[in-house]
Amino acid sequence: MGIRIGDKAFDRRVEKGLQDSFMRGAVTGAQDRLRTGRLNAAKELGDWEKWRTLGKEIRQHTLENLDFYLQQLSEKVANRGGYVFFAETAAEANQYIRQVVQEKQAKKVIKSKSMVTEEIGMNEMLEDDGCQVIESDLGEYILQVDDQDPPSHIVAPALHKNKSQIRDVFREKKGYQKSERPEEITRFAREQLRREFLSADIGVTGCNFAVAESGSISLVTNEGNARLVSSLPKTQIAVMGMERIVPTWEELDVMVSLLCRSAVGQKLTSYVTGLTGPKGEGEVDGPDEFHLVIVDNGRSNILGTEFEEALHCIRCAACINVCPVYSHIGGHAYGSIYPGPIGAVLTPLLDGYENNKELPYASSLCAACTEACPVKIPLHELLIKHRQKIVEEEKRTEALERIAMKGFEAAASNPSLYKVGSKVAPLAMSPFTKEGYVTEGPGPLKAWTRSRDFPAPEKERFRDWYRKRKKGGGEHGQGHDS
Amino acid sequence: MGKGTIHNRDAFLHRIADRLGRNRRTDGVKRPEWSQRPQWNVFKDYTSEQLLDQFKKQCEAIHTDVEETTGELLPKMVSDVILRYRGKKIMTWNDPRFESFGILSYLNKNLSQHGAEVQRWDEQRSREENIRLAEKADVGITFSDITLAESGTVVLLSDKGKGRSVSLLPENYIAIIPKSTLVPRMTQAAQEIHRRIENGDSVASCVNFISGPSNSADIEMSLVVGVHGPVRVTYIIVTDR
User: Fold this and answer.
1) A47-295: which CATH topology?
2) ipTM of predicted assembly, 2 dp
3) Distance CA A106, CA B221 (A)
4) What is the per-residue pLDDT across B153-209, written as a single tens digit (0 to 9) for each?
5) Using the beta-carbon criterion (under 8 Å), do A278 and B205 form an inter-chain contact?
6) Which domains are seen in chain B, by residue range?
7) To 5 degrees, how large is the angle CA B135–CA B141–CA B145?
8) Where are the domains positioned within chain A?
9) Contacts of B35 in chain A (CB under 8 A)
10) Taking 70 as the threshold, does the pLDDT of residue A474 lie above it?
């Protein structure tokens, strides 16, 4: 799949998202639930700001000493009999994985959810080689059965599909005969996939956090598929982004505590699994052979730059779940496997501005993302930095751009204005406005607008920018709708 | 066990050091004193009774049944829960704690009249045979090595007789929890593992933090309990051990 999904131009992706009312309803509902879950979990835990500060300190220290911790990790894995491969590029990572698959003469690979394997396009590579690759996360499995529909959310990949669509996909492709009830669909997937787990030659997992001190990798899941992937096949390949590491188990505790709450509002997910090398001596299940592939694929270019904090991301999607732009255009509109605010920051860094220069503008700069981030990545500031760079690089100081930046500076320099700005999220309001007044606000505004009409924020920023640039014609972002 | 291999490391780590604008660091890095330690304030100074209350409360939230019993009555309780699940094929860890509580002999004696049979994970048997038996079992039973009050979690450390599949493949899972294994949260378990590593002990190849049955909300965000792992879970707390 690679980092980019779909080949439609940004305009058309956005248009498609805006017109898909089921998807938008589903997305808004999911955002509400996940956001509420996160807020409740943070409140119940208490000291949330201290936790966030601690999370940030840990990420910062680890990234500042990344070479040290990766060295320690690799030595510990090797001491336990594991094989470590450092891959500078996606191609190198894939080549190594292909080699393992060929050595094992593997015909079937079963996977648990892993964003980085999607980023490097591992599935396509293996399938081209004639190896069957099966996704076992329920959401990913649904997408795979539906002719490789791309994911639209990093935690809930099939968010854009409703249950009757899913039932139809299983009916058509897998001979499913029962109802659209999620329980029955899930039961069917369990039975289908259990056979695959038992017969797969190789299991591929991602890695939420590696632990340097012991050479462990951790997997944070609810469905149990990652446990099956790492217990049943004789060979396991874990693929990790190079920044996904903590010094010791003590920091693992903190990061996992932040991740589970921020992602799904749970104290811990049903399974948090720490795996160290292949199965131990005398043990029966677990892999005989363990491979760890550590992937750079453009990440090191972010180190030491003003965007370094983007590498602090722990992939919880809290920023996605509060983003008013995401709720309107949906995940696919970003054209990247990493959608939402973090996707708009990360995708241009990993894939270049060329095909992604609209993404930093897919934001109202309301700063809800920054406020939600459990490790305090200043996401909206990084988006502004992207815009500045894009403008600088292209020397394209259109009037529109100047106005947009000025508007933001003015708002940002006035705390009360800024606060209103971040609560109001101008872009998000437009579908709810009648003659310039907000009559039915989404999310946090709902209660308020019930009792009063709120003057609509000036129609600025994204939608406006988007319309204007559309009229202006295909100066950039031309794509093929094929 | 042989030592593994490491490929392409030096160029990779040198590039990172370059980007960070300094020489490569190969040793001497110490974790700083973090400015915050909020994890140690959770359930601080709680008695074991208070921790137990927290634990039970959390189990309701994670769709997990809880039973309390004494060491003496544990075998009967295990048997009762198995019967409630209508279990016919039972698989347990090969773990001396089962013997010391007299669980196996009780089950063998008591369950045969219900047509149920008990298998043990057996490191002398082949991998395929063990996995086949675990996959056919309808109830899997293990002990908890460490138990977390905050999240309703049992921590399982893999070992020869302590196969990963026992708590994973059967539809019903029973965890036996000696009350003495109860700690406030993941912090204390992580500290214990960290301490062992610092002492030069090796960490279990698989450390599982299990909090209730498997679940998913991937279809329209509606919660389905029971996906790839167990569908139903009961924790049996042994209050006097």
Assistant:
1) Rossmann fold (3.40.50)
2) 0.97
3) 35
4) 999 999 999 999 999 999 999 999 999 999 999 999 999 999 999 999 999 999 999
5) yes
6) 54-238 (3.40.50.10420)
7) 125
8) 10-40+323-472, 47-295
9) 53-54, 57
10) no
